[in-house]
Structures
1.
Amino acid sequence: MSKKNENGKSAAESGNGANGDRRIKMSGRKVNVFYGSKQALFDVDLDIRENNVTALIGPSGCGKSTFLRCLNRMNDTIDVCKVTGEIKLDETDIYNSDVDVVELRARVGMVFQKPNPFPKSIFENIAYGPRIHGMARNKAELDETVVNSLKRAGLYEEVKDRLDEPGTGLSGGQQQRLCIARAIAVSPEVILMDEPCSALDPIATAKVEELIDELRENYTIVIVTHSMQQAARVSQRTAFFHLGILVEEGDTDQIFTNPKDERTQDYITGRFG
Amino acid sequence: MFSTLLAVLVIAAIVGYFAARNRAYAVAGDKLHGMHSLPSFHGANMAIWVAIPAFLVMCVWAVVSPRVIDGMVLSQYSDAVAGLSTLEVNSFLRDARAIAFGGIASFPNPEREAAAETISALAFANNVIMAAVIVTIAVCGGLFAWGRITYRARARHHVEGALKILLMVCSAVAIMTTIGIVMSLIFESIRFFGKVPFQEFLFGLHWSPQTALRADQVGSSGAFGAIPLFVGTLLITVIAISVAAPVGLLAAIYLSDYAGPKFRAVAKPVLEILAGVPTVVYGFFAALTVAPFFRNTGESMGLTVSSESALAAGVVMGIMIIPFVSSLSDDVINAVPQSLRDGSAGLGATKSETIRKVILPAALPGIVSALLLAVSRAIGETMIVVMAAGLAANLTINPLEAVTTVTVQIVTLLVGDQEFDSAKTLAAFALGLVLFCVTLCLNFVALRVVQKYREQYD
């Protein structure tokens, strides 16, 4: 734990100056979200920078998960949900009518709060994405993709002898890393994580956090978390949401040591939320 | 007399309840909180002690006493009944009873009238004694329970115990009835197999159950080969399932994953109305609408379609079981967690990919069991087949011809005036037994499938 803490810190510190200058991978401008007549997000402007971990924090119901789900249009599955404003991935507005949601979600993958492996074998869980996107031309390529994804998710050593066993038989932490491997397998550019550790014990959480830090090299990661310590440990940029408003965003160090807004200060010191 | 006593017992139980409850309040005084059982439990305990033992004795008495009376009458008139057959003795008693209690006697004569007087005297005495005994038992029970209303008495435990026994008796009744029906099926079938060899019934290819009533009767071969019936049943079931499975399943998928909430709110109840249509209505729909339609269509294409065809019956039966399949499958598909749908969508799968590759495999056990339940429903269905598929026991797998099924034959074997010990009527029991075994196996398999794979996705 302590070692990883240092890792997280040193990465954040060393990149401190650079974090703000990294290329913008995704950006939201004047994003408003309505669930029926209730407005969940108000004019959110937020940039997601490449090869960074961006943490979205805030009390329950503040709209951080809603914003996350806008980034790969998971909100489309909710009938009453309406999104206005502009969210760009690279230079395309993902809410443009000619954007294919299926393609978008292949580029912007998602890991959910509760591990949700399919009731299939470990192998099939990982192979699912590459199969539906036709990413492997033959069995050998598929095998390679599966093994690589499992290795990147740090799960390969634990499961290499039982790839045929159901993914639902793994422990909670392993299941969540399986879900991360499953997301990696389709080679996304951005990975969205919705409280990925909230259902895990501290040891499994440490492993997943370690993994997130490693994945940053190749992917852009956005993580919603309730744990301030987790945000401080894994992220380089932090955005604080409150009542549907983006209160403050900036380098994680700055947010946690020297917040500009009083509400941020109150939240991170535990005065509410 | 019986009903009067019963009413008295009920009233006594109610009175006892309130009396015991009040007594318990009195015993408790102002320390109700520390009392072991609430006053209402003491009341219930009292009601049980007043009513139940007396009621049980009454039941036994009601069963035993007529026999005792009969025995006494017969011993008194042993001269009159000496040398009579059992049937004649019964007739004697029946007439005596009829005269005594104001019925119509078949052969009234002085002896029987004398016996009738004896019977009414005995019956009166019996009633008086029974009333006395019952009331005594009820009073004793009441006094016993009354004496046990104390501050620490465990009335709650007694009431709970009595309730448990009541529940046990109810479930025992259900189980015993089933066992009784199965036993009767088995014993009658054994009698049938005494007349018709087992292998001839199970493997014979010819079904013609008309047995000769007279020695010189023509056209009564009495062949009991049930294979044509099994084949007919199978054929119609297969047709029904091949209609119901795709339509029902796809409808379920549409309802659960595609339809908007408004459409769903309307469509589901409408589909369930389909399940509420009486099968006889489906029957004449099949016979009067569907079968002629198939025949005419077939003729226009140059096919010979009999006006009572397996196809018509099977298709209508399929329509009948659509709601089974769709409603059960819909429940199963809905039970697949939303998180799996999200997980699949999050990987960029389309809706149909998600359904085909994630939802259906996860829901498969439930869907299989839904289908098996639908199959056993189809196998047991009678009315549609009687009306639309005909009675001819053809051994054919051509769906355009008339076939018949096990259930239909059971109906035709038993309607009308029949001897109850002929091979013809007994054959119905053997067929019933086969049907019972098949549906039992299907239900068993369905249950096992569900148990084995249930909640695999958790």
2.
Amino acid sequence: MESPKRIDTQVLVIGGGVTGTGIARDLALRGVDCVLVEKRDINAGASGANHGLLHSGARYVFNDPVSAAECAREGRLLKKLTPQCIEDCGGLFVAVAGDDENYVAEFPRLCANCGIACRPLDVAQAREMEPALSPALIAAYQVEDAAVDPFMLSLENMAHALALGGRLRRHARVAGFEVRAGRVAAVKVRDKRSGTTFTIDADLVINAAGAWAGEVAHLAGIDLPIVFSKGSLLISDHRIAGCVINRLHPSSDADILVPGGSVSIVGTTSIRIDSLDDIRPTIAEMDTIVETAAQMVPELFRTRYIRAYAGVRPLVSIAKKKSDRSVSRNFVLFDHADAGISNFITIAGGKLTTFRKMAQHTADLACRKLGIAASCRTTSQPLPPCSDFEWTAPGQAAKHWMRAHGRGDLMLCECELVPKSVVAGIIQALQQQNDLPDLRSIGMRSRIGKGTCQGAFCGVRIAAYMSDRPDLPAYDGQDDLKRFLQGRWKGIRPVLWQAALAQEELQEAVHCGLFGLEL
Amino acid sequence: MQQTHRKTDPPQRCELLVIGAGMAGMAAALFAARRGIDTILVGESSEIIFASGLMDLMGVHPLAQKRVWHDPWAAIRRLCRDLPAHPYAHIPEAGIRRALETVFSFLESAGLRYFRRPQRNCRVLTALGSEKITYGVPRTMAAGVQVLERKKPCRIVDIQGLKGFSSRLIVRARHRSWPGLDAARIVFPGMQDRTEVYAEQMARALEVPRQREELARVLAPHVKGVAAVGMPAIFGMYHSDAVCRDLEQRLGVPLFEIPTFPPCVPGLRLKEAFERRLPELGVRLITGKRVVSADVSQSNGFAFGVGDDLAVAADAAVLASGRFLGKGLWADRRRVRESLFDLPVCQPDSRRRWHRRTFLDSRGHPLNRAGLEIDARFRPLGTGGRPVHRRLYAAGSILAHQDWMRAKCGSGLSIASAWAAVEAFIRERG
């Protein structure tokens, strides 16, 4: 892999989440030269650990009407410009016996105030639409929520930026800033894979590191008022409802169920944490989610869960408020000229639904500071679908295999039907980005490891396949498999009851009992 | 798990009902039959096919120190001293030896010969290139034990289209510790046109001499200059020893099998051997069904519901229903239960303490040690600390205070506890 010691660019973007990749694309469309560095992989933080919900905005009408209206506008725009990443499944807000009836009654008016479409349904109608809903339903409203694939979204944003001349370095962690005469003169970046350090000279540096934005700013001597709120979610083994189902009450734990292709995602919790080390879903959170969400959809009590995950919402704490739910989900753009560094800005807070607007505002400020007159094009230019990244959608790889009649194509992942040709394509795409593929990076770009076996079976098959590839001579399958299994465990451990325990026992019997990987 | 039944026939009667068709259940039925006990075994035969074919006895103790033992008997003695609640601690060493040898000679009579050394564990190369510590290995794997010990020049040959088995992966995992190991690949003769090949199909094909001749022809260019050649486990289904010897004679080099990802051929061979030979010894096998209900109210025996239409009456029962995979144990978010009798299960007090934060923690997960507590006669204990029933016994992985996956003692524990349970019944019966 060729790795220059020094990289020159107009703009350096730090952070490969949906905001950072969105900024990279926005800048690239304006013809601005841009390098993105990401310390792990695309969407490794909160961008990859959320519901995958494209908010209609109705969620925020009570606490945060500004965000609500913003979500409504951005949601409509994204449905138009990035349809390949979105399942426009619609949404419901439902209340059950015991919920606050004043809030229920006020909901349509609050939605109308924010320009959010909201249609009352009678309870029988709602239960006919979604039979999984509780018989204790007392009210239901239909809204324009949708499901979005955040991995596809970020990968395609990045792919478009790359196609327009942008550059990407994954596994590259900012190690320090050289600040001279009120400017970031150079950024030291450490390549975590090779252990080498390189320097980026950028006219402007954009900190889009999400939950880690405070850490990054701190390297330049700047303190950011960011607080961390952890949210955990659960994935069921099948799709429980056709549309998004929200609990109709002021935001609380476990009140949203979102379809994600062939599964459903339920969550979240909201727990203030002080450190970003070792973020993982806990067993207590799982119990809270199951017990609370089952009030709205009773079968969540018995459903088999495949996995849990946790993300950290970086919330900008402008003023101390009562709870994290009521801290604005609005984003904040900091121009650190205020703190004496003229070419350094931070974009923080916000949410998945409004990522495009965040990117636009950030790029606008960047261009102003650089004296570039180009205007934003992401409000009208559709995001081009990229065939490399269609594999994150459930069922997509299987359709491809069926079309090709599977001839000469081994099925490597039998839970999610991912054939060898898809894995080969992903490996090739990673190599084109000068990256060494491993099970984790392949799993992020496909359904590998996301089915019932959680990587116990397909992990071995893919490690064997990668070992056989002559273009990966240094690949160590045993080592990679261990890392992959340890990584998956974070999400498996909290959901181990009922049938999931049997699957876990088989996995442990094979990987420890037979292979002795723990020794 | 109480269900309603259509009991179309009068109950079948037996002295001993063995519940579970894994290693412990099969072994219990064998010991009972050998002692002239009228025995029925009920279980879904899928349970044993996840076996690797390797017969573990005792390999690692204490787990936290990852101490690997060469002498399994010394390991057991040490284990029994350190962990007096471990099921092995209730069985005399001579009993464990006798139980194991009975199973080995039974399997040999079914055409499955085992290589073992009285005082010494074996190390076996796995499909991931790691070393598995075990006691008895199928004769078809014995040459691998010897070349691994001396790190002699050796070639691993894999098969195009066989998923999850890569000779390059194995070689690369061992390149530092075993430089004489290298990799090759063949196309299985007669399966050139197939995208995917299956170990079981190849194993069945190799029962035919003509197929072995073809395979030997394909392998011949790959056997030069090495002390042995390892392949995925495909050397026959019913006559694996003969198949392996025939190939060795044709090629003039020792061959050995490497267990593939389960369910694998050596596991299927075990299932075939037990299912074929146990009925010849008088055991009535009811496979493909589960025991779904149990009435223990009569003091002189049990009434069981089997599947949805059978009933079995037995004087005694051995519960060898396994853990979560075998469905002997079952858990909701609150606690672990025993599925059939709702026996008390010794377990950590909260789900938070079921599993450790790291999957591959060498100490093992606390839940692995959950299970049934027994008295010295292998009878499960009730809440009062006394046996639940005079003639209800338990054997195998359902027993508490053991972690067979980490200690590498699965088969030995299943076989020895099955032996102890049957012996206890014989004494009780008088």
